[in-house]
Design goal:
This protein has 357 residues and is of the alpha+beta class. It contains nine helices and 20 strands. The chain is globular, with a radius of gyration of 24 Å. It binds adenosine-5'-triphosphate. This is ABC transporter, ATP-binding protein.
Length: 357
């Protein structure tokens, strides 16, 4: 049974849709990430759920109650923003106690509990100016969790931190939210953040949800070209459906799993960048393997992988992730690459003739 249900929410600003017919549901204790480029409508959607903005149409149900029109404070939701706005003149304890004070609750035990939860025991008397960026974010998290919100909304909470700290804190954040079973919506434009923190990810484009899925499903089965591009997949290959359900492309005829399509339909296939291997000169490809012969154009070492750009005879550029445990291919070398057939996926063109679900 879903805790939060959002039905057909839309919101226009100056006649332009910021949120466009969005529906989704969220179970108790789940973390949903709203992922998308700047300006795609993530914050607007969050503000509508928080009650800070009224939708033009649609309904929001929380714990079986229609909350679409009720005031933000009556929703008992928590929020944490990138500009965490801690009170600089109050110490750590007073900051975390803020939401409890407002409700007239005695803060002592709860504040200590929250500081322990975020790994800041012993920090209660510190001034905010004496904290690092990461410690401030922990205080902000403790402050938003202290009043035990029914739903926590986080808008780019790690955006202002440097990369290594962000990477550390995103894992911590998920652990903390899971430890207390908090239901949360987390807004980010950063794919790795969404993959680390979310149970579910909703990819948003022009105010619409393109796909809502687990991180793994999203990565393994991006449904359309917008999502594939957003996830950083480069190998999008145009093709034409043949009468035997094969697909004619510039680099050969393939037989990927296809939805119900007609012969002569023009479609796009995604060739995933991994797993891929280089075949030796004499080696035959394995059964059920796609083989591509191409010239190496660029090799970039990225730790566990080489990012290898190759160019086929038909001048198509493709990019693959090759394990850096094998020897580095040379620039201009002609190589044969082997990929499993499962690396070739059908992706819907977007915008398409039919709108996404
Ligand atoms: N109060 C407002 N008045 C007018 N236009 C607005 C308002 N709030 C948002 N918009 C517009 O709605 C669109 C979506 O904005 P929103 O802030 O929701 O996007 P976002 O995905 O959160 O972006 P970012 O990641 O940059 O914060 C943008 O085009 C923005 O300019």
């Amino acid at each position: 049974m879903a805790l939060l249900e959002v039905f057909n929410i839309s919101k226009n600003f100056n006649l332009k849709p910021a949120v466009d017919n969005v529906s989704f549901s969220l179970e108790q204790g789940q973390i949903l990430c709203l992922l998308g480029h700047s300006g795609c409508g993530k914050t607007s959607l969050l503000r509508i759920i928080a009650g800070l903005e009224q939708p033009d149409c649609g309904r929001i149900i929380f714990d079986k109650q229609d909350i679409t029109s009720i005031a933000p404070y009556q929703r008992s939701f928590g929020m944490m923003f990138q500009e965490f706005a801690l009170f600089p003149h109050k110490n750590v304890f007073q900051n975390v106690a803020f939401g409890l004070d407002v409700r007239g609750e005695k803060p002592n035990i709860k504040v200590q509990e929250m500081l322990a939860l975020v790994g800041l025991e012993g920090f209660a008397k510190r001034n905010i100016s004496e904290l690092s960026g990461g410690e401030r974010q922990r205080v902000a998290l403790a402050r938003s969790l202290a009043p035990s919100p029914r739903l926590l909304m986080l808008d780019e909470p790690l955006g202002s931190l440097d990369r290594s700290l962000r990477e550390h804190l995103m894992g911590e954040l998920r652990k903390i939210l899971k430890q207390i079973g908090m239901t949360a919506i987390f807004v980010t434009h950063d794919q790795s953040e969404a993959f680390t923190v979310g149970d579910q990810i909703a990819v948003i484009h022009n105010g619409r949800i393109m796909q809502i899925d687990s991180p793994e499903n999203l990565y393994k089965h991006p449904q359309n070209t917008i999502i594939a591009n957003f996830l950083g997949f480069h190998n999008l290959i145009k093709g034409r459906v043949l009468s035997d359900k094969g697909v004619q492309t510039e680099i050969g005829i393939f037989y990927p799993q296809l939805p119900d399509l007609n012969p002569e339909d023009n479609i796009t296939l995604l060739l995933c960048p991994e797993p891929v291997r280089i075949l030796t000169q004499s080696e035959q490809g394995k059964e059920l393997e796609i083989i591509i012969t191409a010239r190496v154009r660029e090799v970039v070492f990225q730790g566990p992988i080489y990012k290898v750009t190759v160019q086929t005879d038909s001048r198509m550029k493709l990019i693959f992730n090759l394990s850096s445990a094998v020897s580095r291919p040379d620039k201009n070398e002609i190589i044969r690459l082997g990929l499993p057939f499962s690396a070739l996926l059908y992706v819907q063109d977007y915008p398409a003739s039919t709108s996404p679900g």
